[in-house]
Amino acid sequence: MYYVELNNGVVIPQLGIGGFAQSKDAIRQALEMRYRLIDTAAQYGNEAEVGEAIRESRVKREDIFLTTKLWTEDIRQGRTYEAFQESLERLQTDYIDLYLIHWPAEGYDKAWKVMEGLYREGKIRAIGVSNFHVCHLDKIRETAEVMPAVNQIESHPRFCNQELIDYCMRKGIAVEAWCPLGGAGSRLLQDGTLAKLADKYGKTAAQVVIRWHIQRGVIVFPKTAHRERMESNMGVFDFALSDEDMALVGEMDRGKRIGADPEDFGF
Ligand SMILES: NC(=O)c1ccc[n+]([C@@H]2O[C@H](COP(=O)([O-])OP(=O)(O)OC[C@H]3O[C@@H](n4cnc5c(N)ncnc54)[C@H](OP(=O)(O)O)[C@@H]3O)[C@@H](O)[C@H]2O)c1
Fold this sequence. Notes:
By secondary structure, this protein is of the alpha/beta class. The protein is 39% helix and 16% strand.
């Protein structure tokens, strides 16, 4: 496993398991298979299942890096503190490793202040944001006493989002890629360039893409509910893409998002 050190010294595994639409059994299986980074969110509606999976696994809580997120309605209603407590209860834990503002809903700057308080109290080890453009990051940075440790954004070979990644990295904000494999139902993994690279390195297309993210310094947590895919998605630490092949994957960029634009999301 590789690790990334966040701007407050906290260390996060660079590869984990995506929590969207995941069951208790899938998360427990991932933990049994050496996954130690779990990405969930209040909005996924499965924090209770994630909490159960952690409790039932034989892995110690302190060996797990647990991320969850504050949903937009809670931001708008000024319920950050309450929403955080509710997440703790559902997850059956007394701290969160990384707590993120899920989307920049109106009031996110006020939510950030509450998160800073929870961070100082030791209830959260690192605080960050998700789906933030440069303008949102700059607004937070104007008044923040604790700088965001992470920005979790859409990024995959069809939408590399490289400019934003470069900006974050220059500012010391670690980047996490969501939909790292192009998301559910995507045909990305059937792409001819990836097939050629998979053949060249004796790997799967998914492994090539995960390795590409890792070599860019990005943190990833592909979602799979299948044991064999969990195993193979982890098999990315025994090869390296050449600079030319890194560039080839980067050239697949079509600048087309799968998800909503943070400037204009309707939820
Ligand atoms: N912050 C945000 O706004 C945001 C938004 C979206 C997602 N996320 C986070 O990012 C995580 C990952 O994103 P995602 O779940 O949307 O998409 P993803 O990880 O890019 O793709 C998941 C899809 O790829 C399939 N898959 C996984 N490994 C595979 C393999 N080796 N070969 C072939 N197919 C494979 C999965 O199918 P099976 O399960 O059937 O294997 C699933 O349909 C989420 O789970 C969530 O934690 C955050």
